Amino acid sequence: MPPRRSTVVGAEAICTFFADIRAQGFRDYVVDLGDVFAKDASLVASGRWALRGLGGGGPYKGNWLNIFARERMGWLIAVHMWN
């Protein structure tokens, strides 16, 4: 959930969210995978992220966590959290 906004749900809304970040001038988004493990019928992945802002601001850095759920169509992201 972006700060002061509602939860982003669905592929189109997620694409719009990240397009808005790029439109604000944020670039050079880097995601590093730190750990992956299985838990029940899910996969849990975590790591670090970084990006730069307008005029070379940043880098901004943080952590991320994804929980993948096995569905008929394959693995889907059930939870995507980052700070």
UniProtKB/TrEMBL annotation:
This is SnoaL-like domain-containing protein.
